[in-house]
Design brief:
Layout (H helix, E strand, L loop, with lengths): L9 E3 L13 H12 L9 E3 L6 E3 L6 E11 L4 E9 L2 H19 L5 E3 L7 H10 L3 E3 L19 E3 L4 E3 L5 E3 L17 E6 L1 H5 L4 H4 L7 E5 L2 H10 L3 H22 L10 H25 L12
Parallel strand pairs: 6-7
Antiparallel strand pairs: 1-2, 3-4, 4-5, 8-9, 9-10, 10-11, 11-12
Helix pairs in contact: 1-8, 3-6
Length: 310
């Protein structure tokens, strides 16, 4: 959703100067307060609006503009919006909004979904791990997987995982392990990307007849296994079920609400600035959509054919 921020009022992120905090506007104060409270190191944006710095510079839908994202948590059976969260138009913020909304609804109304439907953006290892391992929610989401190779060499899925032995086995039966010798002190071997690297033996790969199809440019084969791989496996198994196919159809109810938001309610550009202003507008719009649907339930009207005059 377009923010109320002129493209001409933007500057490169490194050139933004907020030193004079006494004369800054409310949206800027909200932005700076969020930066001060955040424990995560924020990257300097490529382009930032001096009017509404929290709005994200986005070029995903054609010519670039400053934008916010409207995130809905919807009860599929009823078609009712149960929570709303406004975020900058950035995938990471949108995914984190899912956690915020689910936890907020559970705290306020003691409601927790049995399944969660979303597109591939919600199929990252971190969010799948959160859904399956922490919240025990079925992820009806396509797994975000970049391990599949398209150059006719072996992908990670061609290797067999042994949970008990904590190792992979290649099609030739050779072992890939996270460590090949015993250490005096146990090491987790977890990288900054929350993965564990499994490596083959160089002697095994040197004489392997499938080396050209496995690791033609390196002496050994490596596989990076996510610490949330078991949750990813759960999502892959759910994707094979009939319930998952139904979930794909149910997603239309979500897309229809966003189409209604822009085409019927004419909310194609925000009028309030800052994250709080964007949240207020999205919340009012979702309330109007819910009232419209509830009115159809409570006051069904049967349309009678118009009288014909000859």
């Amino acid at each position: 959703m377009k923010a109320d921020a002129n493209r001409q009022r933007g500057v490169p992120g490194a050139e933004a100067d907020w030193s004079n905090r006494q004369s800054i506007s409310r949206p800027v104060r909200e932005y700076l307060a969020a930066l001060d409270q955040s424990e995560v190191e924020k990257r300097t944006p490529k382009n930032i609006s001096l009017t509404d710095p929290a709005a994200h510079w986005s070029a995903a839908w054609g010519p670039a503009f400053y934008a916010y994202s409207a995130n809905y948590l919807i009860d599929i059976a009823a078609g009712i919006v149960v929570d709303v969260e406004a975020t900058p138009a950035h995938k990471t913020d949108e995914i984190n909004a899912t956690k915020t909304m689910i936890e907020r609804v559970e705290e306020r109304f003691d409601l927790k979904p049995d399944r969660l439907i979303g597109d591939t953006n919600y199929g990252t290892a971190e969010i799948l791990g959160w859904m399956v391992e922490e919240k025990h929610i079925e992820p009806h989401v396509s797994v975000w997987d970049k391990t599949q190779r398209n150059d006719e060499t072996l992908s990670s899925s061609d290797f067999q995982w042994d949970e008990q032995a904590d190792e992979y086995r290649c099609p030739q039966g050779h072992v890939l392990r996270s460590q090949w010798r015993a250490f005096k002190h146990l090491r987790p071997h977890i990288t900054k990307a929350d993965t564990i690297i499994y490596r083959s033996s160089q002697s095994d790969c040197a004489t392997c007849p499938m080396k050209v199809r496995c690791c033609p440019n390196t002496p050994i084969r490596k596989i990076a296994r996510s610490v949330h791989e078991s949750a990813r496996d759960v999502a892959r198994e759910i994707a094979k079920t009939s319930g998952y196919k139904q979930s794909r159809k149910d997603r239309k109810k979500v897309e229809m609400l966003f189409a209604h938001l822009k085409r019927i309610l004419k909310l194609d550009r925000l009028r309030l600035r800052g994250p709080n202003g964007a949240h207020d507008e999205f919340l009012l719009a979702a309330t109007a959509q819910n009232l419209r649907r509830m009115a159809k339930w409570l006051c069904p009207v049967e349309l009678e054919p118009a009288n014909m005059a000859s």
